[in-house]
Amino acid sequence: MLRVFVKPEYTLMEQIHTLWKNRAMAKQPIRPDSKEAIAERLTLTREAMGMKQADFCRLVGITPQAWNNYEEAVNRISIDAALKVVQATGISLDWIYRGYEALLPQHIAQEIRRIRDLRSEQ
């Protein structure tokens, strides 16, 4: 529940605006199929493989500019580009688009967990 204290001298419209603004700023959970969540998994995958963007792009056959846009959540990765990643790395479309870890290669899954643990400690 979002609790916001507004000054009593504010008009009703000012109070409503303040409540709405604070509600919009409250952190909402990220959906697993959102651009941001997909971008995070793409970044985790590349980092789990111990590769820089340029090297990863050469491996999978995607331009660095396109890959950067995927990792920065500027664009959602296309199915064609995702299939290139799947073929080159062994990860699954379920991991990319839905976040299902079950079909990840074991070494990549372990490294992703390690990276997440390190990030949560910071």
TrEMBL record:
GO terms for molecular function: DNA binding. This is DNA-binding XRE family transcriptional regulator. Residues 46-96 form the HTH cro/C1-type domain. The keyword DNA-binding applies. Keywords: DNA-binding. InterPro entries: Cro/C1-type_HTH, Lambda_DNA-bd_dom_sf. It comes from the Bacteria.
